[in-house]
Design goal:
- By secondary structure, this protein is of the alpha+beta class.
- It has 3 domains: 166 residues, Roll (Ubiquitin-like (UB roll)); 388 residues, Creatine Kinase, Chain A, domain 2; 126 residues, Up-down Bundle (Four Helix Bundle (Hemerythrin (Met), subunit A)).
- It contains 23 helices and 19 strands.
- Strands 9, 10, 11, 12, 13, 14, 15, 18 and 19 form a 9-stranded mixed sheet that branches. Strands 1, 2, 5, 6, 7 and 8 form a 6-stranded mixed sheet that branches.
- A hairpin with a 4-residue loop joins strand 18 and strand 19.
- Helix 14 packs across helix 16 and helix 20 packs parallel to helix 22.
- The protein starts with 8 loop residues before the first helix and ends with a helix.
- The structure holds adenosine-5'-diphosphate and magnesium ion.
- The site of adenosine-5'-diphosphate has 15 residues, from strand 9, strand 11 and strand 14.
């Protein structure tokens, strides 16, 4: 396929879209009918893939990949670091007669065997037990990735240890999809649905990010090693003008987005929405939603592609949750719903939600799950980056609550006191302008401050951080909702009158869990007080939040649904706590390096310039009061900075020497974080007084505003 540069863009887009994906159309074209059918059955979970079928599929994939110039294939997986990993093997293998053979068997497609020893396992595997397996997730399409001249066939895979323990982010997600399917189907059957045979959760993640010019990035060790600025006095202008959100796109950014779209479309990622976000230099890209495991893979590809395309254009994409202090951070809004194979969105209220029993059951199940497992959902988004967002008067607070909006809250309240008899109608909005037709007004307004908001036909969980894999959040959500659905199914299956039983269940849920529903402004301190009165947890620290993963109820719910065994969950908790400590250690070391080797020397030499100037001025017989005052101010700050550096050095050493992972993470939070804050405080004060031409770091104004 050739795409001409000057072709109109929609035509271009249509040609490019999915061109590097071994998708349904390619399968249909290249596979014998019977093989195609067997593969489709494996994809829909009906029957496992037989080896003879896999052999034919693998061969067709190889031919297709080679036509596209691929030389290698790789099992692409997502270890518990939250990043992706790939080990490339060539299609070419040498033969005895010295020539080569192009080979790719069904076995090579289905299963790989990378050495697992360098990936974090949280104690699930001793270092000498190095064997790990990758297994093709055939529900996520195979694709071709072009990295420079390297063209490789990518096989989305799960990753487990020799003993079968999940060592990755995909395995628990796939397991959670199974349990959600099973429990949802039980409920639907009990409610009289005879048409749906499979249920999946869908995901549309909105990805926020920052773009800055690479020439600034290159001069900032903090950005290079930690992804966020550890220093920087506020820019004279921040986001107070509210002029960036949805603002017109700068030409350079527009070109970036155009190239990003092309690259994503090739991979079959349906990037659609794109716009400026709240903070200067902040943007968002969102895909059309898809099945949760595929959408999760696609989000990983999106994060990678954002960074790759940015570099090509002399930009750097910052995915960190809080790259700049004082302006908004970045999240990854997790739009989630549950759909059946015959196209019913179970979270779509329809026009008369009070009569839509399956909607009410799935809505109430989700609300109950969020209330009962609020701490678990909070833990699923805990990392150092998100600590700067949650509870820090921006994005969502650390308190989990659900926004239902007027119409559903009204129905929720009706259910609590009996049956729901009516749904509030949507209306028309008239603007009083004769040339504009009346608008259709949605039944429910939006609430941008809610961490878990109903948005018309899905829930939008807004707590996830911009760097995080979608996996943890969604396997948690799928599992806890499956758990409540299983309780509901137990009741419905033994009921004589299902309608009466369902009404009773809904009445109970709405009464017992109304505390989690909050439609007001989540950013106010009144809400923090009100939430405490309602008994809702408010966990602002990631360490404390991750420690909740050991609570009995949480261990049990993952084990019961076969999503994570006790050991697997424990391993994950350990990895997350370790990664929390390691991330802060890197930040502390970078803070010390920059403060000692860049900021202090510049401040000291500036003080010497001031000293010389004061002497010269005085010698000339003029008052040097101003020079001396400046000198004194600079020297005081140098002293304070020096002291703060010493405190941070001690705190970092102490934390490094702690072996217990819980205590270690807590030490970093309690001692290192505040000490880093102090170093930054004095350094930023110095930035405000030292000669700008000497300052070693690009400023906030340069990074945020220079296009
Ligand atoms: P917002 O106005 O909230 O910023 P966006 O258009 O930026 O909305 O993003 C909304 C996301 O929600 C998109 O990725 C969209 O595909 C996704 N979405 C829409 N419907 C569903 C659904 N039923 N399940 C999951 N995601 C959905
Ligand atoms: Mg959006």
């Amino acid at each position: 396929m050739t795409v001409e540069k000057n072709e109109a863009s929609p035509i271009r887009a249509a040609k490019v879209f999915g061109s590097n994906v071994f998708n349904d159309a390619v399968m249909r074209e290249r596979l014998p009918k019977s093989v195609y059918k067997s593969l489709k059955k494996a994809i829909s979970g009906e029957t496992p893939l037989a080896l003879d079928v896999a052999n034919v599929v693998a061969n067709a994939m190889k031919d297709w990949a080679i036509e596209k110039n691929a030389t290698h294939y790789c099992h692409w997986f997502q270890p518990m670091t939250g990043l992706t990993a790939e080990k490339h093997d060539p299609f070419i293998s040498p033969t005895a007669d010295g020539s080569t053979l192009l080979e790719f068997s069904g076995k090579q497609l289905i299963q790989g065997e990378p050495d697992a020893s360098s990936f974090p396992s949280g104690g699930l595997r001793a270092t000498f037990e190095a064997r790990g397996y990758t297994a093709w997730d055939c529900t996520s399409p195979v694709f071709i990735k072009e990295d420079g001249n390297n063209v490789t066939l990518f096989i989305p895979s799960a990753f487990c240890s020799y003993t079968g323990c999940a060592l990755d982010k995909k395995t628990p997600l796939l397991r959670s999809m199974d349990t959600l399917n099973k429990q949802s189907i039980r409920v639907l059957k009990a409610l009289g649905n005879t048409t749906s045979s499979r249920v999946t959760s869908t995901l549309g993640p909105e990805q926020e990010y920052f773009l800055i010019d690479k020439k600034f990035y290159d001069k900032r060790l903090d950005l290079i090693v930690s992804g966020r600025t550890l220093f920087g006095a506020p820019s004279p202008r921040g986001q107070e003008m509210d002029d960036h959100y949805f603002g017109s796109l700068h030409e350079r950014i527009a070109s970036f987005m155009a190239e990003l779209n092309t690259e994503l479309w090739k991979l079959g990622v349906t990037a659609t929405t794109q716009h400026n976000e709240v903070s200067p230099a902040q943007y968002e890209v969102a895909p059309v939603y898809g099945t949760v495991n595929v959408a999760t893979d696609h989000n990983q590809l999106t994060m990678e592609t954002l960074q790759k395309v940015a570099l090509r254009q002399g930009l750097v994409c910052l995915l960190h949750e809080k790259p700049f202090a004082g302006v908004n951070g970045s999240g990854k809004h997790n739009n989630w719903s549950i759909v059946t194979d015959d196209g019913i969105n179970l979270l779509d209220p329809g026009s008369t939600p009070h009569e839509n029993m399956s909607f009410l059951v799935f809505l109430c199940a989700t609300v109950k799950a969020v209330d009962k497992y609020a701490k678990l959902l909070r833990a699923s988004v805990a990392n150092t980056g998100n600590e700067h967002r949650l509870g820090a008067n921006e994005a969502p607070p650390a308190i989990v609550s659900v926004f239902l909006g007027d119409q559903l809250t009204d129905i929720f309240e009706q259910l609590a006191i009996g049956t729901a008899k009516s749904s509030r109608e949507s209306g028309e909005l008239k603007l009083g302008i004769s040339t504009l037709p009346p608008f259709h007004k949605d039944c429910t307004d939006r609430n941008r401050t809610s961490p878990f908001a109903f948005t018309g036909n899905r829930f939008e969980f807004r707590m996830p951080g911009s760097t995080q894999s979608c996996s943890g959040v969604n396997f948690t959500l799928n599992t806890v909702v499956a758990e409540i659905l299983s309780e509901i199914a137990d009741e419905l299956e033994k009921a004589e009158d299902v309608k009466v039983a369902a009404q009773k269940i809904l009445g109970k849920i709405t009464t017992e869990h109304k505390r989690i529903v909050f439609n007001g402004d989540n950013y106010t301190k009144e809400w923090v007080e009100e939430a405490a009165r309602r008994g809702l947890p408010n966990i602002t620290s990631s360490v404390e939040s991750l420690q909740c993963l050991a609570e009995k109820d949480f261990v049990e719910v993952f084990a019961k649904h076969g999503v994570l065994s006790n050991d697997e969950l424990h391993a994950r908790q350990e990895i997350l706590l370790e990664s929390y400590a390691m991330t802060l250690n890197i930040e502390a070391m970078a803070t010390l390096d920059i403060a000692k080797r860049q900021i202090l020397p510049v401040a000291v030499s500036y003080s010497s310039t001031l000293g010389t100037a004061a002497q010269a001025v005085k010698a000339a017989g003029v008052s040097a009061d101003a020079q001396i005052a400046l000198l004194k101010q600079t020297c005081d700050l140098i002293n304070s900075l020096k002291n703060a550096i010493e405190v941070l050095e001690v705190a970092t050493k102490k934390s490094q020497h702690e072996n217990d992972v819980n205590k270690k993470a807590a030490l970093y939070r309690d001692e290192v974080v505040p000490a880093m804050g102090d170093v930054r405080l004095y350094a930023d004060e110095l930035e405000k007084v030292v000669d700008a031409s000497l300052w070693p770091l690009p400023t906030y104004a340069q990074m945020l505003f220079l296009k």
